[in-house]
Amino acid sequence: MKKGLRRFTLLLTVMMLVSLLAACGGSNNNSPGSTNSDSSANTGGSSGNGGGELEKDTITALLPPVSANYQARFSDMEKEFNELYPHLTLKIEPASWEDMTQKLDTQVNAGSPPDIAWVGSTAISKYAALDVLVDLSDVLTDEVIADYDPIPLQYFQLGDGQYGLPAYMAIHSIGGNRQFLEEAGIDWRSVQQNGWTYEEFREAIKAGVVKDASGETTRYGFVFATAGVTSKDYLSIMAKSAGLPEYFDENLKFTYTSKNFLGLLEAIREMIDDGSMPKELSSIDAGKRWNMFLTGQTMITGKGLASFENSARLNNEKIQANDGSAVADSIEAEYIALPVPTFNGADYVPTTVVDGYIALRGKKEPTEQHIHNIALAMHYLSSGSIAANYSNELFLSPITESARNAEVLEEYPRNEDNLKADQAMMDKAVAARTDIPTELAAEAIKIETEVIVPKLQALLADEITPQEMYDAVKAAAVKSFGEDGVVVD
Description:
This protein is of the alpha/beta class. The chain has helices at residues 2-23, 74-84, 100-109, 124-129, 142-146, 150-154, 178-183, 188-194, 198-207, 233-240, 259-273, 286-294, 308-321, 368-381, 384-393, 401-404, 416-426, 438-460, 466-481; strands at residues 57-63, 88-94, 116-120, 157-158, 161-162, 164-177, 210-211, 217-224, 298-304, 335-338, 351-359.
């Protein structure tokens, strides 16, 4: 089948080159293959019908509200794609963040998934294990591949296969209230560029705690969402910079049996015990932690994203307008992006979030031409003006050259220090691990789901000690991987 797929690489190349020439004379800059004419219908190739007219085809996609206006543009995206490729129809089904995974899994289990779906790159192993991924390696031309930055592109690879294309790369960080940081004597600009150790961070969040006359805490130094969909975020994000950047080391040994894991668990408990974090941390979800930041109940919040700067700015504008639309009891807050601290003397390794699009197949094997068409649609969705606009709304730097060269619909004010901080964190992003076998990754996810997440909740609630959690995770890892399959130090 791969030989057959290669025949269509030439077709894709010709279509992209013709489109590039057409785009030079037009105002549309959606992608390297964009054109505002219908010339793509006559690109010198036949889909097997013996003539010059390309065979009609429909590509389906299941997509969440990636940014504020992303889903509102679906009808325009469908129309423009058809104008670029008159023989193709792009049919987009919207999904909410809450039901995106459930919808996709239901369709996958029924044997009728969409051709394209939005996922976090960490989900690739999951769908690879279900044998529903489509390898696009043979239909993505060198020109298309060259449009993407190498590191985010690797996050959609598994072994030698390219199973999708990235939409953006973001860093999970933390964020502080500028006024509170300065009142606590924290040189936040230095932290943005040079980072901080756990010891420095612990002293800083202690200084950020405020109590009332009765001794009740009215402002915490640090709050992190740990409930609901964020139940594993706190541990996994901090672990990256605690000497545990992945579940497996370069020898494919499970790393959470290392003494570094125990040291991290002890630090997590210490920040609650000394009053810098709420005792009820295990019940704080994403909405609650952001509410606490906007209402001045915490100096630093996590997890953070670059777009939080804009969310805080918009709430400030609502407060200033005094129209009742701001978050109840909120205060004006300037959001300052900060890196997570380092633990155990380890180097800073940011938690890199690469989300994007995967190609899927159902019970019926897709034709070679259909796979080619999926690649066209996926590149269209993840590049050019579409990618430029959702990246802009998320306060992220585009990861394709075509998006960097495209115009955006609206400019947003940015804090220049945050821009520099985001870039400093992004510069330390590491390439994806594509060498971890699917079966090992699946077993690690099982340990995460069945042991790590519930034990973390118990640790945060002060129901077990760090040592007890460490022992439970180590026992599960040895059971799964054997004594020789885990790190011992």
